[in-house]
């Protein structure tokens, strides 16, 4: 127990394997997991409870043991060469798993046909994505894994997939192959989009309702034409009062319509905002306004956010919505710098200005932007945001390093697989 209580952090367990007759030999090694990809110089090690399941019975542990050395081999009996082995079934152990490409490839069919339970599918993606961000695996590996999720139907798993797509999308949002990446995302999500549709099914679970909103929102962000056209139809019926949108569909519909909207669309959204009685509805609209692509209108959104029509505590959400796209991010950061004194006077050292700093800065992807953020706050001390600024600068530099490592390979993969 002392290895878990007397040192900081947690381990990553790396998995290599080889076949000996009918047995699978697993070589497991451990080191401290560092999200920034740096090397652990502290010689940390843990006594790690290892549990293992196989394709013969994914729900049953066939081996339980301890990884109490830096590297140790485990023999799993009666595992044919083409069968998979899963470490940490149920994702209950407090450690990351990094499979070799060969070991991971054996697990892909189990993701596709749901032989792996949802928690294991989720853990597989989360662990690999963490390895990619830390520079220990290629983005191509996670794109290949994602393609195995085309028939996924679990809300929690899709939440992780959408989060991962969003982070890669931020990385490539200013590059000439962004459209190819969006096409990749649309292809990945086509099956679940068609399965869920727009209208609730009889007796569907609340998780399916949440999943529909998540999927339609992401498909709109990926410029899916069918989703956007259907959103426009439903929006027109909503505005006219013919058929009001269900509450869970309003955010994705608003963002979809605004993403292809013009001045008339913007003015219609402002009218809905002004007519709304519920703060929940006003909040939805504020968080959607930044989806509009026209830079003149984005500037209007930023100015509207600071107006008397928007409660002070809600201003940050409108500005944050603008920062969700590449052009908007640049505009929101410039707006923050220009209005820094006003924002500081309004929010003091509270959590709202910290959130604003985080969302307007952390998704940049160049060293130049990291220096810009660093130098601005050095010259403009903002009480209460010191830790947030440090984290944002770290995130920008991690993004820059990630992009430098994988930009060319991502482009090549998308060209050949989309």
Structure report:
The chain has 418 residues and is α+β, with helices and mostly antiparallel strands. It has a domain at 1-100: Immunoglobulin-like (Sandwich). Helix content is 59%, strand content 11%. The protein contains 18 helices and seven strands. The strands form two sheets. Strands 5-2-1-7 form a four-stranded mixed sheet. A three-stranded antiparallel sheet has the order 4-3-6. Helix 8 (225-240) packs across helix 9 (247-259).
Give a short overview.
With about 425 residues, the chain is of the alpha+beta class. It has a domain at about 1-100: Immunoglobulin-like (Sandwich), CATH 2.60.40. The protein has 18 helices and seven strands.
Number of helices: 18
Overall strand count: 7
Shape: globular
What would you report as the Rg, rounded to the nearest angstrom?
A: 24 Å
Structural class: alpha+beta
Oligomeric status of the shown chains? single chain
Query: Architecture of the domain at 1-100, according to CATH?
Result: Sandwich
User: Mean pLDDT score, rounded?
Assistant: 96
Largest sheet: 4 strands, mixed
Distance between the termini: 48 Å
How much strand? 5-15%
SSE pattern:
HEEEEEEEHHHHHHHHHHHHHHHHH
Looking at CATH, which topology of the domain at 1-100 would you report? Immunoglobulin-like
User: Ranges with pLDDT <50 over ≥5 residues?
Assistant: none
Strand order in the largest sheet: 5-2-1-7
Helix content range = 55-70%
CATH class of the domain at 1-100: Mainly Beta
EC number: 3.4.11.14
Protein name: Puromycin-sensitive aminopeptidase
Subcellular location: Cytoplasm
Organism: Apis cerana
């Amino acid at each position: 127990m002392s290895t878990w209580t007397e040192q900081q952090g947690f381990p990553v367990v790396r998995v290599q394997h080889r076949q000996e007759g009918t047995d699978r030999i697993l070589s497991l090694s451990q080191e401290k997991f560092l999200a920034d990809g740096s090397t652990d110089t502290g010689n940390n090690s843990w006594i790690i409870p290892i549990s293992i399941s196989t394709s013969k019975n994914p729900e049953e542990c066939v081996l339980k043991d301890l990884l109490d050395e830096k590297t140790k081999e485990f023999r799993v009996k009666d595992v044919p060469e083409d069968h998979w082995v899963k470490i940490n079934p149920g994702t209950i152990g407090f450690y990351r798993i990094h499979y070799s490409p060969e070991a991971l490839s054996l697990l892909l069919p189990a993701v596709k046909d749901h032989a792996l339970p949802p928690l294991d599918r989720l853990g597989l993606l989360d662990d690999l994505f963490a390895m990619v961000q830390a520079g220990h695996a290629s983005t191509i590996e996670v794109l290949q894994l994602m393609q195995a999720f085309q028939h996924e139907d679990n809300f929690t798993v899709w939440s992780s997939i959408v989060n991962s797509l969003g982070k890669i999308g931020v990385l490539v949002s200013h590059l000439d192959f962004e459209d190819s990446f969006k096409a990749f995302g649309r292809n990945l999500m086509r099956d679940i989009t068609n399965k869920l549709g727009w209208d609730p099914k009889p007796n569907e679970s609340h998780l399916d309702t949440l999943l529909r909103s998540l999927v339609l929102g992401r498909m709109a962000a990926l410029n899916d034409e069918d989703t956007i056209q259907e959103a426009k139809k439903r929006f027109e019926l909503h505005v006219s009062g013919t058929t009001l949108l269900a509450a869970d569909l309003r955010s994705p519909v608003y963002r979809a319509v605004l993403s292809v909207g013009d001045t008339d669309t913007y003015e219609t959204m402002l009218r809905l905002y002004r007519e709304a009685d519920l703060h929940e509805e006003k909040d939805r609209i504020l968080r959607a306004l930044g989806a509009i692509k026209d830079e003149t209108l984005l500037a209007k959104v930023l100015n509207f956010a600071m107006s008397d029509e928007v409660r002070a505590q809600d201003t940050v959400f409108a500005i944050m919505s603008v920062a969700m796209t590449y052009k908007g991010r640049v505009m929101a950061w410039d707006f923050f710098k220009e209005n820094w004194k006003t924002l500081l006077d309004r929010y003091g050292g509270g959590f709202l200005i910290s959130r604003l700093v985080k969302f307007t800065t952390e998704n940049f992807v160049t060293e130049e932007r990291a220096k810009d953020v660093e130098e601005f706050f050095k010259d403009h001390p903002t009480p209460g945001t010191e830790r947030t600024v440090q984290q944002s600068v770290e995130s920008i530099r991690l993004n820059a390093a990630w992009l430098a490592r994988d930009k060319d390979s991502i482009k090549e993969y998308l060209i050949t697989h989309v």
